[in-house]
Amino acid sequence: MTTVPPTVAQLFSLEGKTAIVAGGTGGLGLAMTSALAEAGADIISLELPHDKLSAGLESKVKELGRRYTRFECDLSDSKKIRAVFEEMWKADVVPDILLNSAGIQRRGSVEDITDDDIDAVLQINLKATFVIAQEFGRRLLALERKGKIINVASIISFIGNTNISPYAASKGGVMQMTKAFSNEWAGRGITVNAICPGYMKTALTEQYSTDPKYKGYNDYIIGRTPAGRWGEPRDLKGAVVFLAAPGSDFVTGTSLVVDGGILAK
């Protein structure tokens, strides 16, 4: 019997899929989560308790005609992360896609950065990312189900920059973690990839592109970026849908850079 190959539309459709998203309520996460919903996925959102941005994500997902379910969890506590995943499985959530986009930043010179800042960044950006991917993958393996894990790293996974040493360490770790998970799970039907955004315009970075006080920094970013502009959250939509969809089934263990050409310069 001849198998009819999927159409291009089918290769990039997420109809009937369920995406679990950590860090989907603001900035880059909102754009990527909305893209998954627009492509057809229902959304399970893992959020901080009383997240003020939750309503915006819920509204966007429902506006696109997809189901939205919220589970609350403090990602700074790995025991609570494991507990909330157990809660999900007891609620009969059947996962297909994981978008691991929670992250924080703490700035300071190497000699001045504090233990509290180091711990906070590594816990959220690296350990929570690890534990979330681990719990998601364990469930897929138990169900003998294929799936997609998409971690969010950074161009700082490749370049160290200055005054963000804990962030650089965490995002370098996310990239290596992505490779390590893929090595063990690719042969069992789970692809594991990372998206590495460049300098993106979000609420947290808006001051650098609009405030005259930071004109020098804004000029530096634009001058360093061959595309000649800051990235926008929407620039990540195609990347996340590609890595979540059947069209990327043979793509695993890699980092997809979305940076306007910075790393090629």
Name the structural class.
alpha/beta
The CATH superfamily label reads: NAD(P)-binding Rossmann-like Domain
Radius of gyration of CA atoms, rounded to a whole number: 18 Å
CATH topology group: Rossmann fold
> Architecture, CATH level 2?
3-Layer(aba) Sandwich
How do the SSEs run, as a string of H and E? HEHEHEHEHEHEHHHE
**Domain tally:** 1
Oligomeric state of the chains present here: single chain
Round the mean pLDDT to the nearest integer and report it: 95
Number of separate helices: 9
Strand content: 5-15%
Tell me the span between the first and last alpha carbons: 50 Å
Query: What is the CATH C-level name?
Result: Alpha Beta
**Overall shape:** globular
What does this structure look like?
This protein has a seven-stranded parallel beta sheet with strand order 3-2-1-4-5-6-7, with helices on both faces. It has nine helices and seven strands, in the order αβαβαβαβαβαβαααβ. It is an alpha/beta fold and 265 residues long. It has a single domain, classed as Rossmann fold (3-Layer(aba) Sandwich).
Summarize the topology:
Elements lengths: L7 H4 L6 E5 L4 H12 L3 E6 L6 H10 L4 E5 L5 H13 L6 E4 L14 H29 L3 E6 L12 H21 L4 E8 L8 H5 L4 H10 L12 H8 L10 E4 L7
Parallel strand pairs: 1-2, 1-4, 2-3, 4-5, 5-6, 6-7
Helix pairs in contact: 2-9, 4-5, 5-6
